[in-house]
Fold each of these.
Amino acid sequence: EPEVTQTPSHQVTQMGQEVILRCVPISNHLYFYWYRQILGQKVEFLVSFYNNEISEKSEIFDDQFSVERPDGSNFTLKIRSTKLEDSAMYFCASITTTSQETQYFGPGTRLLVL
Amino acid sequence: QKEVEQDPGPLSVPEGAIVSLNCTYSNSAFQYFMWYRQYSRKGPELLMYTYSSGNKEDGRFTAQVDKSSKYISLFIRDSQPSDSATYLCAMSDGSSYKLIFGSGTRLLVRP
């Protein structure tokens, strides 16, 4: 069964450093999402991406964040200058256009900012 | 008022019990309602989704949506220890399909 994959599974970084989180969505999916989950809190929407551009972003997704689809398979989330409060699980998700209510999540990247 | 509210639990039940998990919401624009299961430190796994009001059944799982009350439920019949996880409700208004999640209910099924 196709699945969303994410790398790395864990990332530890120093405050102020740049990190890039990578996702490979399911191959025929066209909408892509990033969510985050701070430990003990709810899953929160960050950004949605369709047709090579951001379609919607939350208040959390400020100028420190960017997304890119550098090739036909990868979808990345970049945090330019990490803060302590960026420590969280980051989940990538994707959907098809024919079944838009079924959003499939990757296993997540656990980011720890020291 | 929070957009989606969910009792965090934990909910502890004996094996074989019927489990009822619930969420309430405030945004009447929500049209799609999902239940996800999340094991510790893993990604959410889609269990069921429902469009608008009504019931949907899949094996031991039944999802119910009551839009007039802004209330959704997930029932698990014949619960198993392997059902022990956190259950997340999520909703979408169908425009961008971004999901708004509840805080999750932690379920423990005792053997």
Amino acid sequence: EPEVTQTPSHQVTQMGQEVILRCVPISNHLYFYWYRQILGQKVEFLVSFYNNEISEKSEIFDDQFSVERPDGSNFTLKIRSTKLEDSAMYFCASTQTNTFSVYYEQYFGPGTRLTVT
Amino acid sequence: GENVEQHPSTLSVQEGDSAVIKCTYSDSASNYFPWYKQELGKRPQLIIDIRSNVGEKKDQRIAVTLNKTAKHFSLHITETQPEDSAVYFCAAVKGTGGFKTIFGAGTRLFVKA
């Protein structure tokens, strides 16, 4: 069964550094998402992306964050200048959709644990 | 803003008993309600979902009910087993635009053997 993949599984960075988290969504999926989960807390929506542009974003997704689909398979989340409070698990997800039907089920990747020191 | 409240935060049951987790959402535009099970250090796994045009859905030992008027939805697990122990999250999805998903705070379920 196809799966969403994410790299790296764990990223350690120093405060103020830029990080790029990478995701490969399922190949026929067209909606992509990033979520964040601080240890022991709930999953928080960051952004959704469709047709090469942001569809929705939360108040967490400020100017420090950006997303990109640099090629036909990857979907990235960039944090420009990391802060200690950015330490969390970041999940990518994707959803299949087409012109005639809306599929809601989101398939989650295994996550990237980001540690900012 | 949009919010999903989830109760209880912790639930401990004896093996074989039923477990019920309740959620309330605030955004009337939400029309899809998934439930996820998350084990420690793992990704959320969808266990059941319901759309707003349906009041109830069942899949073996798991059922979900939705009261759209009251903006309540609930997860019911019957005949609980120790392997059901995990954190369960409800979520509400606005099915227009960018499918913004708001999660509840989670319920830690312990099933005692």
Amino acid sequence: AQSVTQPDIHITVSEGASLELRCNYSYGATPYLFWYVQSPGQGLQLLLKYFSGDTLVQGIKGFEAEFKRSQSSFNLRKPSVHWSDAAEYFCAVPKAAGNKLTFGGGTRVLVKP
Amino acid sequence: DGGITQSPKYLFRKEGQNVTLSCEQNLNHDAMYWYRQDPGQGLRLIYYSQIVNDFQKGDIAEGYSVSREKKESFPLTVTSAQKNPTAFYLCASSMEPDAKNIQYFGAGTRLSVL
């Protein structure tokens, strides 16, 4: 069965510092991969997606992610975080049948002034 | 504005009571989904519907029921059989039930037990 793991439950970063969130997946073939962001008490917003091709994908809000097949990873990065980046971030993989998403447990990001 | 509307934002359930969460979309999407979110567990799929008048159980369907009588509406009922209903519930939709279709989410309903 496919699974998605986000090893870090919480990350605290200073404003202006770089950020990297880890995502590992277990899947038989090359999966489609998504990163979503959730502000407190809100729904999820898509940051970026990977289907195929270039393994470095750009998203909204200055985020990027790199797909590494050899490491079964799809880590999310941002060079310089802003206070508004404080949120919870979810990595997800869809099952082809029915487009059912399997989510990682999420990483909560706190931004220090 | 196109989007997904969930109501109410907050809901309280008494012991033995059924409650219904509303989800409406005006995106003309075929597929709709209900997820439950608990702290530290990510989101788990309750039910999904690929097309009107059809729906399937997700990973945690016990104690929940749904209907899909209209394309734009996918209400979720939390029945008294659901012994631990306190959670944040998110509705989503996608244009088609295919893995390349992005899911768009509503703002959620927070359900608590009195």
Amino acid sequence: SAVISQKPSRDICQRGTSLTIQCQVDSQVTMMFWYRQQPGQSLTLIATANQGSEATYESGFVIDKFPISRPNLTFSTLTVSNMSPEDSSIYLCSTKDRGFNGGYTFGSGTRLTVV
Amino acid sequence: KQEVTQIPAALSVPEGENLVLNCSFTDSAIYNLQWFRQDPGKGLTSLLLIQSSQREQTSGRLNASLDKSSGRSTLYIAASQPGDSATYLCAVRIQGAQKLVFGQGTRLTINP
């Protein structure tokens, strides 16, 4: 399966600021996915990022709050903008495994605390 | 809308016991189902992937079953060890879609 390097692993940020999370994949992948996991909750998909096109956002998530870049087939960033304490979560990127088995691989996550 | 439910939400057992974690989903039109492990504050590690045409998959002490018609999957852990302590998540991939829908997870504690 693909290997994803995600950073930072954690951060503590002041409200009103922005944080950019990076994910680097060890192979070229068509789609990358960004998830949020709020404290005590399961994972919710934020958006799907394809190279060369605008990201597709799920209901309840908007580009102004969570801008995504996908400059090439191995890299993507998610920015959490104008943060508030409610944005404190674990953010994870994901991609489909190599081959056609349909499985998914996840990065190690970014634990964000907004104070 | 696909909904995934995991029962129990938390489970604590002594070391050495065999145990079963349950996952149910409301729409049987799935492409596959994947079980993950998550350690506190960390990312997800894939454990087992079951295609919609399969009934079960095994990896070491883990066995996952799938009954698509009834909307259920189980994860069986044999001879549990303290290192198995983690949250276990199941996720289904909907047919015709790329995204995963996750359950809330089962927080498992194995006591030495």
